[in-house]
TrEMBL record, chain B:
Residues 24-375 form the ABC-2 type transporter transmembrane domain. One of its GO terms (molecular function) is ABC-type transporter activity. InterPro entries: ABC-2_transporter_component, ABC2_TM. It comes from Weissella viridescens. It comes from the Bacteria. This is ABC transporter permease protein. It is found in: Cell membrane. Keywords: Cell membrane, Membrane, Transmembrane, Transmembrane helix. GO terms for cellular component: plasma membrane. It holds the Pfam family ABC2_membrane_3. It is a multi-pass membrane protein.
Length: 299, 410
């Protein structure tokens, strides 16, 4: 288990991360979200022991980072790095060997991974000949080929098309099912919600939200109401608790200040009988993220 | 585990570079240049007109006989008249006309004629005059022979090791080797300093370093890179050594290179061994220094800026080697020959000239080893501090920031 206790990092008089706490259990995924400069990469660097925290600690099964533990740690940095003039096989095998894997095993595993991720190219091809998407897949393979126990992924989906994002997500879920502890950062809120068991949102180094995505969303109340019904917007606007109405697809999205007002909307909308759509949900993670960012800017 | 990882990094660095054209260019270029020079020399000599110059001597049959007996590398031909000789010269039948008038000689050469060894001719004519004057003074042949025989002189060098009977030869050989080594060491240092800087800067600027350091430690990367590039340098040296040994078997067959071999036979092997040790330690010393500086680089465009000061330092020892000869008591040079980063060329040169003893060379070697130890120890801290830090601005600023707090306990 990974335990981060009261982790703080200051660079001069600037606080990059402030009193961060979290736990990641085996088979659990932690999503780390926040704007650029919120402290995500600094958090990763402290976990990786690249930089020393100003205070607090990072423990892995009760101890700090050791050479043995590093062998079981996979890290995908935000800025991808591969040896451009080296062949795919040479560099994946090099990274795998550094993680204690035998060359022969790594060679077989590489072929399997390339097939699973639909990498266009042969293991003997040089990285510089690959497309950006394929190079990113190779980077992921190099990170996970040795079946890490703990995986740190900094923006794993950036630059990927939806098909490859889906492929990548599936592999992360596979690793989670195999019992890996995973922490990742992303700006793709749908992806974060889909993958994460827990998420932490940072704003200027401060933890502003933490918990399971559904719990976080529910904590904001069911204040988003999608409606497809023969009722005028003026009527809806007069209902207490309806803050705003905006067109969305074939219907309208109502922003409620009081979730209870949904009942009034339902009653009025169904007066004439059947309506095609009525969905009252908590705000999306994306909406919560924007709201929190905006709140930070007001401060 | 760290040892295993260290070996993986060493092997990866070594094998990767070994596969590049650049490395083999570095190894083979000096050999190809030497081969090209030898080839050109061979072709020039093969196509050279080797006919001996023809010298016409006017009205002096005894001189014709005398010069004919000397090893002048010239054909001597007698002419009865000056006009006949001049006509032969004009018709390009001979290359020069030699005329004697009251023991004064005049040599008229054809502008486009074969070259004549004038020093040898002058010496032969001097002897010819001496013999003639001696005969006029009725000096006996034996006495004349005694007068003409030059005295023998052998050189003995009194060094602190004792008397070296073949002093002059050994001295010249060792100094020659030391100067040649100076050039070779400078070439080695600049090449491998550039190589290690390129390796580290490439991994840092492409962020591969972050992946590597997630799996290993800065120490493994630092010493692994130095080990890998160090092995390449040792292989480079070994290739030259093997080629040198192979060449020594067939070089004697080439008459022009016989002199080089004769000189090399004068090498004192204890000198060679000590020089080799000093050079190997210095290569590692320079690589450690470069690795520390290269870790401050943000991108590949700063590599040259980082490597330049290291190259300048190696240049000091290289240049001073050439001014050393004839200055055994120059205190400045003597002190510098013990200073690591400079001693790798100066101390072998002093040792070669027998200005320094083996004990003094051992002190220089010990100082180098100690510096290597401390530079590695403290340098690793600076490397660790910088290798994942990307600063705006130039690397001088990074260097100053790194020095600050260098000796803080970790």
């Amino acid at each position: 288990m990974i335990e981060i206790n009261d982790l703080t990092k200051q660079f001069g008089d600037k606080t990059a991360v402030s009193h961060l706490n979290m736990q990641i259990k085996p088979g659990e995924v932690m999503g780390l979200i926040g704007q650029n400069g919120a402290g995500k990469t600094t958090t990763f660097r402290m976990i990786l022991d690249f930089i020393d925290p100003t205070s607090g600690s990072v423990r892995w099964d009760g101890t700090s980072m050791t050479a043995e533990k590093r062998q079981k740690l996979g890290f995908l940095p935000e800025e991808r790095g591969l040896y451009q003039k080296m062949s795919i096989e040479d560099q994946v095998l090099y990274f795998a060997e550094l993680h204690g894997m035998k060359r022969g095993d790594a060679r077989l595993a590489l072929r399997d991974w390339m097939k699973r991720l639909n990498v266009v190219g042969k293991p003997e091809d040089k990285v510089q000949s690959l497309s950006k998407g394929n190079a990113q897949k190779i980077q992921l393979i190099a990170t996970v080929i040795f079946n890490p126990t703990f995986l740190i992924l900094d923006e794993p989906f950036s630059g990927l098309d939806p098909v490859n994002t889906e492929l990548m997500m599936q592999e992360i879920l596979n690793l989670k099912q195999q019992g890996a502890m995973i922490i990742f950062s992303s700006h793709d809120m749908a992806g974060v919600e889909k993958l994460s068991d827990q998420l932490t949102m940072l704003r200027h180094g401060e933890t502003v939200l933490q918990g399971a995505p559904t719990e976080i969303r529910e904590s904001f109340g069911r204040t988003e109401l999608y409606l497809e019904a023969p009722i005028s917007s003026d009527t809806l606007a007069q209902i207490d608790g309806v803050d705003a109405i905006e067109p969305q697809g074939d219907g309208r999205l109502l922003h409620l200040s009081d979730p209870e007002s949904g009942k009034t909307v339902f009653k009025l909308a169904t007066q004439a009988g059947y309506i095609p759509a009525f969905a009252q949900e908590p705000p999306t993670l994306d909406a919560i993220f924007r709201r929190e960012v905006a709140a930070g800017e007001v401060k | 585990m760290q040892k295993k990882q260290l070996w993986i990094v060493i092997r990866q660095t070594f094998v990767n570079r070994l596969k590049t054209v650049g490395y083999w260019m570095l190894v083979l270029t000096p050999i190809l240049i030497l081969a090209a020079i030898a080839g050109i020399n061979f072709v020039v000599q093969a196509t050279q007109n080797n006919t001996a110059p023809k010298i016409g001597v006017v009205q002096n049959q005894p001189l014709v006989h005398y010069l004919d007996k000397q090893q002048l590398d010239a054909d001597i031909k007698g002419y009865a008249k000056t006009s006949t000789a001049n006509k032969a010269l004009a018709d390009e039948k001979i290359d020069a006309v030699l005329v004697e008038h009251e023991q004064q000689f005049t040599l008229t050469k054809r502008a486009n004629g074969q070259s004549i060894d004038q020093k040898a001719l002058q010496s032969a004519l001097t002897q010819y005059n001496t013999i003639n004057r001696a005969k006029a003074l009725q000096v006996s042949d034996d006495t004349l022979q005694q007068l003409m025989t030059p005295p023998k002189m052998s050189t003995h060098i009194q060094s602190q090791k004792g008397v070296n009977k073949d002093g002059a030869n050994s001295n010249a050989a060792n100094y020659g080797v030391a100067v040649a080594l100076g050039i070779l060491i400078f070439m080695f240092l600049t090449s491998y300093v550039g190589m290690i800087a390129q390796e580290i800067a490439n991994e840092k600027s492409s962020r591969i370093m972050e992946i590597l350091l997630a799996a290993t430690s800065p120490g493994v990367q630092f010493f692994g890179k130095i080990g890998g590039i160090g092995l390449l340098a040792l292989l480079h040296g070994a290739i030259y050594l093997i080629l040198g040994i192979i060449a020594s078997f067939w070089l004697p067959k080439i008459s022009q290179l016989k002199g080089v071999l004769d000189m090399l036979q004068g090498i004192d092997w204890s000198f060679a061994l000590m020089t080799m040790l000093i050079v190997i330690v210095s290569i590692f010393l320079y690589m450690v220094l470069t690795a520390i500086i290269a870790a401050m680089v943000n991108d590949l465009s700063q590599v040259q800026q980082a490597v330049a000061p290291v190259t300048y330092i190696s240049l000091i020892g290289y240049i001073l080697t050439f001014v050393l000869n004839g200055q055994p008591h120059n205190a400045f040079l003597n002190i510098l020959s013990y200073v690591p980063f400079v001693s790798q060329t100066l101390m072998p040169a002093r040792l070669g000239l027998q200005y320094a003893t083996m004990t003094q060379a051992s002190i220089a070697l010990t100082l180098e080893v100690m510096t290597l130890y401390f530079l590695s120890k403290y340098g690793l801290r600076v490397y660790k501090r910088n290798v994942l830090t990307y600063r705006e601005g130039n690397i001088t600023k990074a260097a100053l920031l790194s020095l600050k707090g260098l000796f803080k306990a970790h």
